[in-house]
Design goal:
Helix content is 33%, strand content 12%. The chain has 384 residues and is of the alpha+beta class. It has a six-stranded antiparallel beta sheet, sandwiched between helices. The chain has a three-stranded antiparallel beta sheet with strand order 3-6-4. Strands 5-11 form a two-stranded parallel sheet. It starts with 21 loop residues before the first helix and ends with a helix. It has helices spanning 22-37, 74-87, 97-100, 114-119, 137-146, 163-176, 180-189, 221-228, 240-243, 249-254, 265-276, 285-292, 367-382, and strands spanning 44-50, 53-60, 68-71, 198-199, 213-215, 261-263, 314-315, 336-337, 345-349, 354-360, 362-364.
Length: 384
Amino acid sequence: MYGRHVDTDLDIDNVEAAGFDREKVDALVARARKEVDEERLPSCQFALLRNGVVGAAATFGAPSDARYVIFSATKAVVAFATWIAIDEGHIRVDAKVADYIPEFASNGKDVVTVEQVMLHTSGFPHAPLGAPQWDTREGRLAAFARWRLNWEPGTRFEYHPTSAHWVLAELIERATATPYASFVAERVVQPLGLARLQLGVPPADQDDVMELSKVGELASPDELEAAIGVRSLPISEVTAEVLLQFNRSADRALGVPGGGGISDAVDLARFYQALLAGGAGLLSASAMYEFTVHVRNTLPDYMGTPANRTLGLVVAGDDGRSSLRGMGKTVSPRAFGHNGAGGQIAFADPDTGISFVYLTNGLEQHVLREGRRTTAIASRAAVC
């Protein structure tokens, strides 16, 4: 169905060194590769780390050096970069966005704060900005000026798939006089030694990035109602057609801050290991607390699930809904992370020292099937 099946060698030499249970790792491996073996997904890759050690990492259906578009898992990296700028005094969390970006102040947006943008409560979740307008700073600023609010900022939560992080990117540029992608590279990626994690990949370096493809079929209204009590999902800009744009060289090279990161599973999991280690000296203790611990947004989503968001990440919580936040059912309440569209998983758990990342280039159309896969894989990873 997807061409020649490439089953790469499984790197489990460090299972014991990382303090993992080999039988539980084997169960994780079996579940992670299941859809590839069944030809439901073209490929996948995962990495399981603890205490800085790669305990298990594997790629199925692709070469072992494959990289993937990580979609909204990018948001954690960009938020971390934003926190560096905040920590150094370049940006204030309680400041108005328009204090830094005057072009943003139109149509009542002059009241929106940096905090609200980072919490997805700022009121412009569906603000349009795509190619070719996002290719230039001038185009992005013109879009900012046109955007209108859908509700009073701070009163509701609705996930902002791309708009909020375009604002964070511009805040970084205004506050540090450095292009946002360069700031991420120079202040986050390079100091942490994450050579395989990039925001903005030059065309000449994209040969190892796996091509995206749609898989499966949309869930029917009857299936949705039986599983989650609604017959339709909210309208979102995150469609398969939009996600497939990241097969284009120009969009991979741009580095869309809300979803255009490229990485392998090991380096993204190493990023989360750095967060478990207190930010590897890149952030103060107070900044790390706000980034990984302090939940400032508990407003409900459309299903009534509290957002449980810090200024940049999602926290599993102790309300029994960690699986609805993409981290499975077996993580501790303190686990934090940020998943991505199409089934990307990325989280860390301070109670166990585990960080886990699962990536795929198969854009699952059946939201219920994707949710079940995410819960099954994340739950197995968390108990290794």
